[in-house]
Design brief:
The complex is a heterotrimer of chains A (about 325), B (about 350) and C (about 575). Chain A is mainly α. Chain A has helices spanning about 5-10, 30-40, 45-65, 100-135, 140-155, 155-170, 170-200, 200-210, 215-250, 260-270, 280-305. In chain A, α4 runs antiparallel to α5, α9 runs parallel beside α10 (about 260-270) and α9 runs antiparallel to α11 (about 280-305). The longest helix of chain A has about 35 residues, at about 100-135. Helices cover about 80% and strands about 0% of the residues of chain B. Chain B is globular, with a radius of gyration of 24 Å. Chain C has about 575 residues and is α+β, with helices and mostly antiparallel strands. Chain C has 15 helices and 20 strands. In chain C, strands 1, 8, 9, 10, 11, 12, 13, 14, 15, 16, 17 and 18 form a 12-stranded mixed sheet that branches. The radius of gyration of chain C is 27 Å and the shape is globular. Chain C starts with 7 loop residues before the first helix and ends with a strand. The chains are: A mainly alpha (about 325), B mainly alpha (about 350), C alpha+beta (about 575). Chains in contact: A-B, A-C, B-C. The interface of A and C includes residues 82, 96, 169 and 257 of A.
Chain lengths: ~325, ~350, ~575
């Protein structure tokens, strides 16, 4: 029964509804970890997502140990064992160069998930402030900013990726830059729409009338209420980003062979989908599972961030 | 209102032109010789030099850029290096094809995604919500060509319910070509009064449209769910509940429309994106759309074609965003007093 | 609380206004498209009516003998329809519409008569006399005679675009009489072989657009424009009925009733070229009977279709091979030890095994079926131990200094990716890091030609195939010294080799056996100096409907189907 816990609870105004046993700020017996576990357990979706993310993290860290053929994620090839079906030595089969797909999928966690998360976070870091500012301020500045956003939106991302790859050399990092530059405008646009909508609400007007500075209003009143759609989009985007990497890799603009990047592996298995489906199937499934996990995680996060979130039966 | 339209319209035009010019310049700056596309991969140095002169590739870049804009303004969008056809002919035809495909896809996405989101919100926390949630996530991250190929193999090759590829049945090809006015097969069929062509065109549109709709379905479902949940916590809903309306009426009549804001914004974004980025689907189903044209142009360093495509897609994006910005206050009355 | 219904009237007006705006926008788009579209279809139907005048309208009147052959092409078919300059994918259709003086038969390895019935050459190989087929008419109606043939070849030579260079040896052409043509050459060359080339050897009507076009001036511009509208001026069994650039069914050919070869027996009356970019789609279409022929699927897809009784798979070794050019002029590979070591890191057996039936192992630089091929030119194959000792001699290798080299390939080709991945893997065992750059063709070529020597790659991989059935193409393009790099991207310069190359064409024309031996010597020099490594030769695996009879693949005409020679089945 800590005092600070109570204070947060009352100020947040949601601790005591019977249908919603309260957020992380709820007071009660037990440690912070215990409360966290309690929170998670009551939300099976979030629990599932978190479980998968933990599994992914373990896979990423322990890949060199868990993979039966760690060299296959690097330079090793075994051409005489090309396109083996799943079974025996190779639980998920081998690809066109005879490399073990299971090992490559394992090593791919670090690369695909890691870089994609960085891309999304970077895009959020650029897009959300721009959109928030434009939506909160309105007027000519809003117009100008949105036209700049439109320019980025309209510019063909493929061309941009090609330009960057041509100047700096093709690699996954450079493809990541290209994707961030093409992706942030989405968040900016969504954010601006929401921010502009909320700007006109009564409580925002009230806060402004009370003399609270604009920036404070934006950060404490507009942002939390507007962030919902962004979280939704961002959490769904992990799969999309990985697949964008795939498209770029196929055109030679991103990860190069033999990098075990899931998207690249899916592209390499493209023409083999009807004859040796495992080559594209397992990396594709990995993408979907990771994307699912992050979506569920993002949904859990959104509940926490959305002041109105809980309590609707 | 009209002032807004005009101002935004002009701004959009300028942005589109600006982006097109930027695309043109960047393409010319990229390493690689566009003359090699025209002259062929086995051209001699002399042939390449000659073609370069022909295409104006040896002029300094500012001059090329200026020429391009000057031509553009007079209606000459240049000649595509990789198809050797006028860019305007290429791009306008392909644009309409993509427009038709993407429109049908977004219609499907809205018709499936929004009700899915409503379902998830109404049954919040219970199995339908989880199922909808997992489905949304999977749909948003499934590799597009997978889905397309799987559908093709299953529905076309195994079950023969829909055709494998193409825009119309091959026996109708002469009829379809003769009827071409807008490059949109459904519209052309209606204009020509040809029912068989309409049905054939529609059946050929379904599978690629479904594949393109996968990601937006997931996105719309989740945005609808999120927006609806938010709106359901608001005052006017509590008032409606207190007044005695059923939950169902509340959702569909009072809460849904104001929640559509983010969905509309996303719709505009997806629309613009899909117009130029669906080359995998287009390749798989033999649709001669803008996406595959854009990829081919980029591979060939075809600056006029890239610029032309960019301008058209930019205009479409901007038009869609403009429409959304105008429609949002219509859907959500709270936005009207705020002036935007 | 705001009552939504109070504003309903205004709301409805606004929505209506918005839809009007939208409709206007769409109408404007549709309008602009329609002003261009009818123009295109007008010229196309014009072409159809002109070209098809002796024939029934292209819309199939569905006579039972109206068999159609559908060719599935994975890229746009037509780039340039001008037979003098055409050098691209349209070749698959050009050989059904146009003919040349001779045609190369890869099975018998002999030249067969086509528009020329017989030919002789002087002992020094500098004078060639061709006797022409009689009773041949162009699709434009004119009769083909020696003067017309002379005009066509001269125009092609004058324009000197595409593969026009093949006529480079020709000094003058004289039409001795309407059926006889005499060529005088500047130097001895196998003109009968050159006249059978895949490109730039077509005989066409230079007066098709009115005045005789010669390759320069206004009359030529008229002919160039005429070809651009989708018309043809050939003598072949088929003529262009319609061409819709960018459409799925891009090109349609109808039979030419006045064809000199006649139409006895069963023949295809119509040839349709359908653009199918994705191999998986093409595989499904050929299975469903929607296309008659696919030029290439993946080896895995092809293998899966072999057991289908409704289809036939035709395997033919081609004249197309993969060449890996090693940089002899700069960079780490300038050192012959290092270069030879890298050559020993290519795993031919593994690559051929992984690529299934789509490739065959290469022996030397010249593919089998061409003069100068020798299966004794095996090269070294994978030999990592030998490579290591070679490297050690220069201070590199597993116990020496690490090394980084660059290889460039064109992006989007899984076969090439496999080759470089395998090479990278083997080189890693030799303490060499291979940096593979998969880029667009223009960029790859540009980089190789850059004047800054440091920017150039160490290993350049690309496919090569000849314009006519002769190995000269490899040597003159890839291995002859160049002042500025064009295709000699091993940057090799050898006076001995240059001299041999300069004389080989004359030798081929006068003494074939000696020429063959000379080619073997040249290849041996290239292999000994590790200038080039050739991992494999492409194996064509065509998939056709079983009902298509009489199909024989001719590697001299890559991807071409001579539809007239086929017999449509039930």
């Amino acid at each position: 029964m800590s005092g600070s816990g109570d204070a947060v609870d009352r100020a947040g105004g949601r601790g005591s509804s019977s249908t919603a046993p309260g957020g992380l700020g709820a007071s009660g017996p037990g440690s912070a970890l215990g409360r966290f576990i309690g929170y998670v357990v009551r939300r099976p979706g979030l629990a599932f997502g978190l479980a998968i993310v933990i599994v992914l993290a373990v896979g990423a860290v322990l890949a060199p140990v868990l993979a039966p053929f760690p060299g296959d994620a690097g330079n090793d090839t075994n051409l005489l064992a090309a396109l083996q079906p799943p079974g025996g030595l190779h639980p998920l089969g081998t690809d066109l160069a005879g490399r073990d797909i299971w090992s490559r999928v394992l090593f791919g966690v670090r690369i695909s998930v890691g870089v994609s998360v960085v891309v999304i976070v970077a895009s959020l870091f650029v897009g959300v402030p721009v959109g928030l500012f434009a939506g909160a301020v309105g007027g000519k500045l809003d117009d100008l900013l949105m036209r700049i956003v439109d320019i980025f939106l309209a510019f063909p991302s493929l061309l941009l990726a090609l330009a960057i790859a041509a100047t700096l050399g093709p690699s996954m990092e450079h493809a990541a830059i290209a994707i961030v530059v093409s992706w942030w405008p989405w968040y900016a646009r969504l954010m601006r729409g929401e921010a502009a909508a909320i700007r006109g609400r009564a409580y925002v007007e009230a806060a402004l009338l009370l003399g609270i500075p604009r920036w404070r209003v934006a950060l404490r009143h507009i942002l939390p209420n507007a962030i919902g759609p962004i979280i939704v989009q961002a959490s769904l985007d992990l799969g999309g980003v990985i697949l964008t990497f795939a498209a770029l890799s196929f055109l030679g603009l991103g990860a190069q062979d033999p990098t075990p990047e899931w998207g690249l592996m899916v592209e390499q298995g493209r023409t083999l989908t009807s004859t040796q489906p495992w080559v594209a199937l397992y990396p594709g499934a990995a993408i979907m599972i990771a994307a699912l996990a992050f979506t569920l995680l993002g949904e859990g996060l959104r509940e926490r961030l959305d002041p109105k979130g809980l309590a609707r039966p | 209102m009209r002032r807004i339209l005009i101002r935004r319209g002009l701004q959009s035009l300028l942005v589109a032109l600006g982006v097109g010019l930027l695309a043109f310049v960047i393409t010319r700056l990229l390493p690689g010789d566009a003359a090699a596309t025209w002259a062929g991969p086995r051209a001699t140095a002399d042939q390449l030099a000659r073609v370069r002169g022909q295409l104006g590739l040896d002029r300094p870049l500012p001059e090329q850029a200026f020429r391009y804009i000057a031509d553009l303004v007079t209606g000459n969008w240049g000649t595509s290096i990789h198809t050797r056809q006028p860019v305007l002919t290429d791009v306008s035809g392909r644009f309409m094809t993509s427009l038709e495909l993407v429109s049908i896809a977004l219609l499907i996405a809205a018709l499936i995604g929004i009700p899915m989101g409503v379902l998830a919100a109404s049954w919040r926390g219970r199995p339908p919500d989880w199922i909808a949630g997992i489905a949304s996530s999977l749909l948003a991250s499934v590799p597009v060509f997978w889905l397309g190929l799987l559908l093709q193999l299953l529905i076309a090759t195994q079950l023969h319910w829909l055709p494998v590829a193409g825009r119309w049945d091959r026996t109708l090809n002469d009829v379809a070509v003769a009827a071409t006015r807008t490059h949109m097969v459904l519209v052309d069929a209606v204009l020509a009064g040809n029912g068989t062509l309409f049905v054939s065109g529609l059946s050929h549109l379904l599978m690629p449209a479904i594949v393109i709709a996968a990601y937006p379905i997931g996105l719309f479902a989740r945005l609808t769910r999120a927006g609806l949940l938010e709106t359901l916590g608001e005052e006017h809903v509590r008032m409606a509940r207190a007044t005695g309306y059923t939950e169902r009426t509340i959702i569909w009549r009072f809460a849904l429309r104001p929640s559509m804001g983010p969905v509309l914004s996303a719709l505009a974004l997806v629309f613009g994106f899909a117009l130029g980025n669906t080359f995998l689907v287009e390749n798989l189903f033999n649709f001669q759309g803008l996406g595959s044209y854009a990829v081919d142009s980029i591979a060939a360093l075809d600056a006029p074609a890239i610029a032309g495509t960019t301008i058209l897609v930019a205009l479409a994006y901007l038009a869609a965003n403009l429409v959304v910005d105008l429609v949002r206050p219509v859907m959500d009355p709270r936005l009207r007093e705020a002036g935007r | 609380m705001v009552n939504h219904f109070q504003h309903s009237g205004t709301v409805r007006v606004r929505i209506a206004a918005l839809f009007c705006v939208a409709a206007l926008v769409f109408a404007a788009c549709g309008g602009s498209a329609s002003t261009t579209a009818p123009a295109a279809s007008e010229t196309a139907s014009e072409a159809a009516s002109q070209a098809a005048s002796p024939v029934a309208s292209p819309v199939a009147s569905a006579a039972p003998t109206d068999a159609t052959f559908t060719y599935a092409s994975h890229t746009q078919v037509v780039t340039d329809l001008d037979p003098a300059t055409s050098y691209s994918n349209e070749v698959i259709a050009m050989h059904d519409v146009y003919e040349s003086l001779t045609r190369y038969d890869a099975v018998t390895k002999k030249l067969m008569p086509a528009l020329a019935t017989s030919w002789t050459s002087s002992p020094d190989g500098k004078t060639w006399t061709f006797t022409l087929q009689s009773g041949v008419t162009f699709h434009t109606g004119r009769v083909m005679d020696a003067a017309a043939v002379k005009a066509a070849i001269e125009r092609t030579k004058t324009l000197n675009q595409g593969a026009g260079y093949i006529w480079g040896a020709v000094h003058s052409i004289v039409a001795k009489d309407p059926q006889t043509l005499v060529f005088t050459l500047d130097y001895a060359a196998p003109l009968d072989l050159i006249a059978s080339a895949n490109y730039a050897a077509y005989i066409y009507d230079t007066q098709a657009a009115g005045a005789a076009a010669t390759g320069a001036g206004a009359s030529d511009a008229a002919l160039v424009a005429w070809f651009k509208t989708g018309k043809d001026a050939g003598t072949g069994p088929y003529q262009i009925a319609s061409w819709k650039a960018g459409d799925e069914f891009e090109l349609t050919l109808n039979k030419y009733d006045g064809y000199w070869g006649g139409w006895q027996g069963a023949h295809y009356a119509k040839v349709v070229y359908r653009v199918v970019p994705e191999v998986t789609t093409a595989a499904q279409l050929v299975q469903s009977g929607d296309v008659s022929y696919v030029d290439r699927l993946t080896p895995q897809l092809t293998a899966s279709l072999k057991s289908n009784p409704a289809l036939q798979v035709v395997d033919t070794p081609s004249f197309q091979n993969l060449v890996a050019l090693l940089n002899t002029a700069s960079g780490p590979l300038k050192d012959p030890n290092v270069r030879k070591a890298v050559a020993k890191a290519f795993d031919f057996n593994g690559i051929v095994s992984a690529l299934g039936g789509s490739v065959v192992p290469a022996k030397g630089v010249i593919p089998q079926g061409l003069i100068g091929y020798s299966d004794s030119l095996t090269g070294t194959g994978l030999d990592l131990a030998g490579a290591a000792s070679l490297l050690a001699a220069s201070g590199y290798g597993p116990n020496g200094k690490p090394l980084t080299i660059t290889a460039t390939i064109v992006s989007g080709d899984t076969d090439l990716q496999l080759v470089t991945t395998s090479l990278k893997s083997n080189l890693a065992k030799l303490n060499i890091t291979l940096d593979v750059q998969a880029v667009q063709w223009q960029a790859q070529w540009d980089k190789a030609k850059s004047s800054d020597v440091a920017k150039r790659q160490d290993v350049f991989l690309m496919y090569w195939w000849p314009d006519y059935a002769d190995p000269f193409s490899w040597f003159i393009s890839l291995f002859h010294s160049e002042t500025t790099p064009n295709f000699n991207l091993a940057y090799y310069s050898s006076k001995t080799l240059d001299a041999e190359i300069d004389g080989i064409q004359a030798l081929t024309a006068t003494n074939r056996d000696q020429a063959a031996a000379e080619y073997v010597t040249m290849q041996q020099q290239l292999i000994d100096n590790a200038v080039v490594v050739v991992p494999y030769v492409q194996n064509y695996q065509r998939v056709l409907q079983a009902s298509v009879g009489g199909f024989v693949d001719n590697p001299a005409y890559a991807q071409v189907v001579f539809a007239y020679d086929l017999t449509p089945g039930p």
